[in-house]
Amino acid sequence: TKNDILLLSYLSAEPGANDPIESAVRFAAETDLEILKSRPNKHEVPGYKVTGFVPFNPNTKMSNATVVINETNEVFRVAKGAPQVIIKLVGGNDDAVHAVNTLAGRGLRALGVARTIPGDLETYELVGMITLLDPPRPDSAETIRRCNGYGVEVKMITGDQLIIAKEVAHRLGMSRVILDAGHLVDPDKSDEEITQHCERADGFAQVIPEHKYRVVELLQKRGLLVGMTGDGVNDAPALKKANVGIAVHGCTDAARSAADIVLLAPGLSTIVDGITTSRAIFQRMR
């Protein structure tokens, strides 16, 4: 049921993390589930005890919790993460794939939730999907348009699935030439070919953090000047490598120290202000 999904997602959500997805999941569960409303201790779920937790990792694209049911002492695990990862974990499910694609076509992100079957901590079964609406910021489309007007090409790099990336690109007024990140590390292609793909593409989907660095590296070898935005520890190498590393609002300390520019307010429109100001300074110097 809906309540089962919410409870299991809550158990596998990182407490106190200021991750927007985890916050959304926790808020939804706390708003809907009676069991979570009237509990004396906000850090416990009545009847359950979380004994182990592996936080979300951009490489595995999931988080994992080990939970004990207090009454029976039965132990089970819950995994929550990117739909393609969870569907693979449970050994495939065509209905789930279809549901995820249908949602993605409407611009909705899905999170898969799976739990282990009784008596076996290695075999998972699919519980269901949570849907999230993660729209681009209202100023993003305008920022991209202004950047293009200044001759700056914008590429989107996201961990989301290809179909969602295309939908978001469309909303932002970009072309839908989005490549799967697998193209960046394809052993059958020469660096030259990959660089061409990199230049032509409007973005990359299903990336892991190493791919960001790779994009910067390939474009720089072409003699292009590259600015890169990021917020996480994993983005730090790409921010450091880029000609201009831009740490966005709410970023981690690692990203902040690796970047050249740190944005203090949400949104990316400040980047365009930086371009106009620096061009004005350059013109005066000339």
From TrEMBL:
Transmembrane segments: none annotated. It comes from the Eukaryota. Keywords: ATP-binding, Magnesium, Membrane, Metal-binding, Nucleotide-binding, Phosphoprotein, Transmembrane, Transmembrane helix. The keyword Cytoplasm does not apply. GO terms for molecular function: ATP binding; ATP hydrolysis activity; metal ion binding. It is found in: Membrane. GO terms for cellular component: membrane. The keyword Transmembrane applies. InterPro entries: ATPase_P-typ_cyto_dom_N, HAD-like_sf, HAD_sf, P_typ_ATPase. Belongs to the cation transport ATPase (P-type) (TC 3.A.3) family. Type IIIA subfamily. This is H+ ATPase. It comes from Rhizophagus irregularis.
